[in-house]
Amino acid sequence: MTKALWNSLGVLLVGGAVGCGAAGQDGSALLQDDPVSQGLASENGLSAINGLSAINGLVASNGLMTANGLSTINGLSTINGLMTSNGLMTSNGGRATVEYLAKCALSNGDYIDKQDNTGKSYRYYGRVGIGSGWKNGQCDTSCQQKISACMMAHMNSTGNHVPIFINADPDKMPSVGMSLPTDSGSDAIIQEGVFMGNMLTSNPPTAYFVKGDGFKASIPGRLGASSGNPYKSWSGYRTDDANFYDGIASALCQARVLSDGEHYDYKECGTASGPYGTYIGSWPNVVTTYVNRNYNGSVAQNFSTVTLNFNGEGLGFKTRSKAEVWTTTSNFEFKNTVWMYATGNLTIESPAGSNALCSNYWGEHIVITKNTGEPFSLSSLNVHVGNTVTIKGYKKGTSTVVSKTISTPGLNNATILNWDGLLKVEIKQNQGVCIDDVVLKT
User: Which of 74, 282, 329, 389 can bridge 429 by disulfide, Cβ–Cβ 3.0-4.6 Å?
Assistant: First the structure.
């Protein structure tokens, strides 16, 4: 059984955002202390809130360390590690940065006390714990990369607060760990992106992202939607082909399979030295984020029926990038998830006289989600396959997974499911599968 430690996460509001809850020591509002899930060791990921506004030293030409009163060669708790007389501690924006820096670096329940240039005291609590040794010691390159990735994952250039779920390689960041968000009951099931870099000592700061499985450029202040964030898309070659990829996680990052043996997140990102070149592990410390665009969780199903088919798409249309959501119909999205270095495509074919969505390669899934994050029902669908196919439905607010295995269905046989309260449906068959006439209620 999945274990979770429940605690509260209060973050300073910055960039003009309005919040509720108790006032902070400097009079600014704190986000109310909603319970969030803290993963234990490698069993879980971490639920969190982003909202670090990139209005202070993060967008400057220098890193956080330089000219900001911050030093990685001294402990954060010391005057030389985080100065009180100048830099970050002397402004509201700078103190907000320290809030997130401490939250990423220090362990849950740990804290540092610092003063600003007027002598006023502030207490900053830890939460993620990926650089806890920095409190009283040095923060080496690995530590700097981990904290940088964590802080980038929490950035929102609007200063707004958006629920996220973060994963990281448990061997490198055990306090975060790696698991399916649904295992912790999280609604943030859409894999947004992967963050990497070093903002603490590099000059200028190196900060990058690559697009995840369900990347959306329409979340205000998040990656791809705003020029106010310091990170940029990372690009390069992968080892098994001659194509150059710009900001695609599945092409540029190394996968680590999750506990169910089917899904994966990323343990590091690197590029090849050139077309079909040698892999270069440029960023060994990365953080993967999940989001859900239905932020307040209040959307309910109204059970109007929608039937999705693919006759409007041209035969032969295909994509090999799982970051490319190639069609959206009635706010539903279809995408393929492929293993790292797979050469798979989603194609539009006509196996039974009408166009169908097909996946023809080993290890691929066809994934159905509502792009607003709302729950939906899967009533039935036609499955075109000559072998065995497994259909799984992931339910909202629970780790429950409903599943049905179909053996050798005919080309036009409708599979009746009537599953309600779904956040995601996956259809998998190792030798290829096509679906059509998908009847959903939402």
Answer: 389
**pLDDT tens digits, residue range 330-347?**
667 776 654 433 345 566
Measured between its terminal Cα atoms, the distance across the chain in Å is 31
Q: Which two tokens stand for residue 100?
A: 């997130």
Bridge partners, residue 12, by sequence: 30
Q: Report the run of H or E that residue 401 belongs to, with start and end.
A: strand 401-407
Beta-carbon contacts of 401 under 8 Å, excluding residues fewer than 6 positions away, are: 182, 392, 393, 394, 395
CB 166 within 8 A of CB 173: no
With the C-alpha atoms ordered 243, 249, 254, 257, is the resulting torsion angle positive or negative?
negative
8 A C-beta contact, residue 281 and residue 252:
no
Buried b (16+ CB within 10 A) or exposed e, 3-25: ebeeeebbbbbbbebebeeeebe
Q: Which amino acid is at 165?
A: F
Cα(245)–Cα(251) distance, rounded to whole angstroms?
7
Q: What is the DSSP letter of 68?
A: T
Q: Left, alpha or beta for 424 (phi > 0: left; psi -120 to 50: alpha)?
A: beta
For residue 68, count CB atoms less than 10 angstroms from its CB and return exposed for 0-12, middle for 13-18, buried for 19 or more: buried
Q: Hey, which residues does 197 pair with through a beta bridge? A: 207
Amino acid residing at 114: K
Tokens 């900053």, residue located: 124
- Give the up-direction half-sphere exposure of residue 307: CA atoms within 13 A in the CB hemisphere: 9
Strands 206-211 and 232-233, how do they pair?
parallel
The answer to whether 392 and 426 have CB atoms below 8 angstroms apart is: yes
| CB-count exposure of residue 239 (10 Å: 0-12, 13-18, 19+) | middle
Note the pLDDT of residue 135: 96
Question: What count of Cα atoms within 13 Å lies in the side-chain half-sphere of residue 299?
Answer: 19
Instruction: Let me know: does 135 contact 128? Beta carbons within 8 Å.
Output: no
DSSP tally for the chain: helices H, then strands E: 3, 27
3 state DSSP class of 245: strand
Size of the chain, expressed as the number of residues it contains = 442
For 145, phi and psi rounded to 5 degrees?
-65, -40
Q: Measuring CA to CA, which residue among 124, 99, 96, 122 is closest to residue 109?
A: 124
Inter-residue contact 286 to 194 (CB < 8 Å): yes
Structure tokens at 281: 């592990």
pLDDT digits (tens, 9 = 90+) for 403-418: 998 876 555 567 889 9
Q: What is the pLDDT of residue 63?
A: 57
Written as one letter, the residue type at 184 is: S
pLDDT at 52: 62
Sign of CA dihedral 129, 139, 123, 160: negative
